[in-house]
């Protein structure tokens, strides 16, 4: 028997406590829109919908010659690709000028007047909630490319608060979104600062020393060159199967995947492996320890590096750790990321989005001869990395807080199947 989800306490603003909800279907508060272009709007107004960026300009090569059948989208109207709704490709158009979407897209608007009026911004927040995702997920069963039309989503049941309460909820979540955006901007600024700093702290191509050096070190002393594998060892991850993963417990240990490295281990979807099984398989060499440099060997947008700060954890396939071959080289761990990046950029290796042991064997390190200078640079980068990690953790915590808040602000009626 399926386990029932526990009832949760609803959260309401004081002035609305005791007010009734309206039990409605989505079709009671929205209407599909099929207004065609009829050659009134130019091709540069044609948009697509993505999960991350919302409604954005469509690539010219994807636009058909005849735009008369393209659908018009007006301010606060929603649009989605019926074949991609189950992965989240839906968005509200917030601007005043009309735009166009493919004739295959679904367009609908909110009914903002009458007893069952719904605020478009309220619905925009609601469609990011677990209720919406659970309902859409039901419609996606049977295949990834399933089409979800307006008649399907219109059956979604809602417990709708009054229009004024909707706006109060919208203001609350909107303020939280602005706070998250501000923290994301700060994170971007820190990462941009680090990128700029790295370009100056390490020698440019053809140079024997960097543009900037700390004043306490002799500028006349040139840096030395060493092959990466003379200084560091590399350990690839173990090939775990997805069926090997278990719930976190005292008898389990985290398995580090590419996604954990990419997200600096701030993501919540972590996986674990039995310590008892690990002992039988003798997986000790696949363990990452605090201070190890972890590499994502497959990267969607370049290569990712992460100094592991957590408890001991296992490495999964397509990840690797880099560790010093001698204690005196330990401070150089912090210098590897920019040096590997420089080699990648100079040789154009980043185009295939893969790192290999063979490629890493070709990396030549330009490093300070003075161990004190090595430590000084490493400490500087370490302090900056900790700021970046702390900022990323703040963003993750705010997003988690928002998710929890949405669960309490949106009343959840019994879901019906599409």
Tell me about this structure.
The protein has 418 residues and is of the alpha+beta class. It has two domains: 18-160, DNA methylase specificity domains (Adenine-n6-DNA-methyltransferase TaqI, Chain A, domain 2); 187-398, Alpha-Beta Complex (Adenine-n6-DNA-methyltransferase TaqI, Chain A, domain 2), CATH 3.90.220. Helix content is 33%, strand content 19%. It is built from eleven helices and 20 strands. The strands form six sheets. Strands 2-9-6-7 form a four-stranded antiparallel sheet. A four-stranded mixed sheet has the order 4-3-8-5, with no helix packed on it. Strand 16 (293-296) and strand 17 (304-307) form a beta hairpin. Helix 5 packs antiparallel against helix 11. The two termini are 22 Å apart. Mean pLDDT is 84; it is low at 1-7.
What descriptors fit this protein?
19% strand, 418 residues, Adenine-n6-DNA-methyltransferase TaqI, Chain A, domain 2, four-stranded mixed beta sheet, four-stranded antiparallel beta sheet, disordered N terminus, 11 helices, alpha+beta
Short description:
By secondary structure, this protein is α+β, with helices and mostly antiparallel strands.
Number of domains: 2
What gap, in angstroms, lies between the N and C termini?
22 Å
What's the gyration radius in Å?
27 Å
Number of helices: 11
Unreliable runs, pLDDT <50, ≥5 residues?
1-7
Name of the top-level CATH class of the largest domain:
Alpha Beta
Question: Percent of residues in beta strands?
Answer: 15-25%
